[in-house]
Structure formats: structure tokens, C-alpha cells
């Protein structure tokens, strides 16, 4: 799934809507292959309205939009899919709700969860956090060795997540991942276009190193 190569998970930080959408636009123009809209604090109404605006952008650049956790928002805006953690609805329930044609991503930190997710209908896994990150409440990192074990244990694609930056993603060579997921490395960089281009090129090299 080439859509998973450079996977942007959004962060609102202190952006107003215009600035937030502009970062996503530039990222999509310059190599991001998938966008996951993550809104932990927004009301349902605000999340829905923002998702509509983001989907207009991602559709323009033919980039799939994934909604974090919220199946209702995913269906309401006809996003490409939804990504869930281990504290959300059961995977099989989410699959039944969204149908077989939408993407279902599931977070996994160990081999057992990864296998469970695959059997329950996940299309891909997000594995991490590989490095410490302020984005996630759980500070316990997932080792590169565990990442490799998960990749070997399942047949669905695996995306590495958590604290990934241009300076440290080279450590993911020969792990078998399908792509990387970043948040602050793109959302907070001074030059989104250049950063996205460099990350895309580096990630393609890393993915190719498995072959």
C-alpha cells in the first residue's frame, strides 16, 4: 500500500483553521501519501466541519483521509477510513460499521495485538511509539526488535509511529515497514514543503531497503 509511505497525523497545536489547513495542503502537495485527522478535544460538530474542509483538500490531491477513532465522523464525511486504538470499539464492530471497502487501521504495541487486529479485519497496523513523544499519553516506547517481530507475524502492512523525525528514521531500515507516520516533524516545521519532500524520499529508501 503505497498510500502508507508518508503518513501525516495532524496536530492542532496553536493553529487557527486557515493555518492548519494550509499545512495539510502543502504537505499533500509535496509528498504526504495519507492524512489522519486527529482531534482529541473538538466537539462532534467542530470535528465534522473540520473533517469536511480537510477532505476537500485531500480529495484535491488524491490523498486518502483517515479519521482518528471516530467512526461516525468517518462515515459522515465519507473518509477513506478510520484508525482506532485499543481503547475504542472492538475491531470487528468497527469493520462491520464502516463496511469492507473503507480502510481500517489499528494501533498495536505487541505481536498478540497485531495478530488479533489482522484476524479481526484490520487493513494495516500503526506500531509504536518507536521513540518518546508528547503526542501519546503512553510514554513506553516500542523497540525496533518488537517492530520487526510484529512485521514478521502479520501479512498486513505496518506503519511505524511515534517520535519519528528526519534525524532518526534511518534506524527503521530493514524492519519491513510499509511507511512512517509523523506529527510534529511536519506540522511544526518551518518549511513544510522541503520537509515533506525529504521525508518522502528517505522513507521510500527505507521501504526499498527491505527488498
Describe the structure.
This protein is of the alpha/beta class and 211 residues long. The chain has a single domain, classed as Aldolase class I (TIM Barrel, Alpha-Beta Barrel), CATH 3.20.20. It has eight helices and eight strands. The protein has an eight-stranded parallel beta barrel, surrounded by seven helices. α1 runs parallel beside α2. It is globular, with a radius of gyration of 16 Å.
State the share of residues found in helices, binned by percent. 40-55%
Which class in CATH terms? Alpha Beta
What's the overall average pLDDT, rounded? 95
Q: Helix count?
A: 8
Number of domains: 1
Per CATH, which architecture? Alpha-Beta Barrel
Which secondary-structure class do the elements indicate?
Answer: alpha/beta
Proportion of strand residues: 15-25%
Number of strands: 8
- Numbering strands along the chain, what is their spatial order in the largest sheet? 1-2-3-4-5-6-7-8
Element pattern in H and E:
EHEHEHEHEHEHEEHH
- What is the makeup of the main sheet? 8 strands, parallel, barrel
Residue windows where pLDDT falls under 50 for at least 5 positions:
none
Q: Which shape, going by the Cα principal axes? A: globular
CATH topology: TIM Barrel
What integer value in Å does the Rg equal?
16 Å
**What name goes with the CATH superfamily?**
Aldolase class I
* End-to-end separation: 15 Å
Amino acid at each position: 500500500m503505497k498510500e502508507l509511505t508518508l503518513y501525516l497525523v495532524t496536530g492542532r497545536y496553536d493553529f487557527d483553521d486557515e493555518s492548519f489547513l494550509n499545512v495539510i495542503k502543502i504537505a499533500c502537495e509535496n509528498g504526504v501519501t495519507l492524512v489522519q485527522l486527529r482531534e482529541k478535544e473538538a466537539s462532534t460538530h467542530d470535528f465534522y466541519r473540520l473533517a469536511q474542509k480537510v477532505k476537500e483538500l485531500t480529495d484535491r490531491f488524491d490523498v486518502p483521509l483517515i479519521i482518528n477513532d471516530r467512526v461516525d465522523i468517518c462515515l459522515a464525511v465519507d473518509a477513506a477510513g478510520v484508525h482506532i486504538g485499543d481503547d475504542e470499539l472492538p475491531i470487528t464492530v468497527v469493520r462491520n460499521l464502516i463496511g469492507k471497502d473503507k480502510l481500517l487501521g489499528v494501533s498495536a504495541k505487541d505481536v498478540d495485538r497485531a495478530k488479533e487486529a489482522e484476524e479481526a479485519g484490520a487493513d494495516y497496523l500503526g506500531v509504536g511509539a518507536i521513540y518518546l513523544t508528547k503526542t501519546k499519553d503512553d510514554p513506553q516506547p516500542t523497540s525496533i526488535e518488537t517492530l520487526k517481530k510484529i512485521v514478521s507475524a502479520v501479512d498486513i502492512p505496518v506503519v511505524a509511529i511515534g517520535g519519528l523525525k528526519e534525524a532518526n528514521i534511518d534506524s527503521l531500515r530493514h524492519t519491513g515497514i510499509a511507511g512512517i507516520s509523523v506529527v510534529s516533524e511536519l506540522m511544526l516545521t518551518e518549511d513544510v514543503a522541503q520537509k515533506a519532500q525529504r521525508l518522502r524520499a528517505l522513507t521510500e529508501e527505507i521501504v526499498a531497503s527491505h527488498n
